[in-house]
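Moderator note: this is an archived Q&A kept for reference. The question asked for a predicted structure of one protein chain; the sequence and the answer are reproduced below.
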Amino acid sequence: MQPSLLRIVVLAGVVSLIGVRSSNECLAQVQSVFPEQEWLVKSPSDVGLNAPKLNEMSEYLGGIGCVVRQGYLVHTWGDAAQRTDIASCCKPWYAHFLFKAIEDGRLKGLEERVVDVEPRLAELNPSLQHKDRDIRWRHLVTQTSCYGVSERPGEAFDYSDYNMALLFDNLFFKVNGSTSESVTNDVLHKQLTDLLMCQDEPRFNAKGRLAVSPRDFARFGLLYLRGGEWRGRRLLSESSVQRLLATPLPASLPRSSGKPAEMIPGQRSIGGGSNQTDHHGSYSFTWWTNGLDRNRQRHWPAIPHDTVGAFGHKGKRALVLVPGLDLIVVWNDAAIDSPAREARALQLLLGAVSDSISSVP
């Protein structure tokens, strides 16, 4: 190789390395941004978003909400400080506290039997070989316990608010040793929301439903975008976060037939009944992912494949994370009543991304 050509190659390599290092340094700087007592605020254009298109999205949604990018609050509509019930969006919070209980040693693991803390399960359904004795924590948090339906644990998916009430009561009251009167302060605040410096005092009600403002819900989302770390402190292991967000049920797992089976006398629900929906190959420890259903159809076509979310009341309430774009949107009381409108809202969000990374698959 001629000396002049060698110098060009070396120079190109140096420039490339500088570019990579600069890119990594910028990424590290972005990932170190967290809210304090108040959110740090930037304009949409400062973080590669188009303000008019964000307005179009929020007008389409209605209700209240906010958008966070690169750790900055960049867009709000309605009263983003309003603490409101989030319906089934509370389920990823339950999953968080379950994994936290395992990491802190209050539970041995997801395969521990729930009957060990709720012995009444042992006497149920003798005609079905006392199937509920084999319910594991993994079954509850993936809604495959088949509690209250005829299948055995793990045999089918049963989206059931009886299942979730069984999870909540045993996790928060028995494993964590709290009560309905103290669970907000003893568990929710001390183990999570005080650490996130939430502004609007999230609260569990007596039934275990969660009320949280959009801007506080976005802090929970940012914790997961940052792999379980918050301002230099690890609140949940990175491996737990990865498992929670990216381990959807196999598309081949059947939905429950819905044939009823015996439950604990007086069993309550946190809201609805059982067998409410299919998992569509996209249910990962209470988070909805952008997976493929039994027909190989994408949950949210034309949306980045790494998108995950929590949804309640058929999409009227939601937290959505797009990790590859470092983007969060939260809405509540929105005019969403179908999967098609939910998908349209996400398309409008993605349409507001104006920088060069908007093409993430």
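Archived answer notes: Residues 244 and 359 are 25 Å apart (CA to CA).
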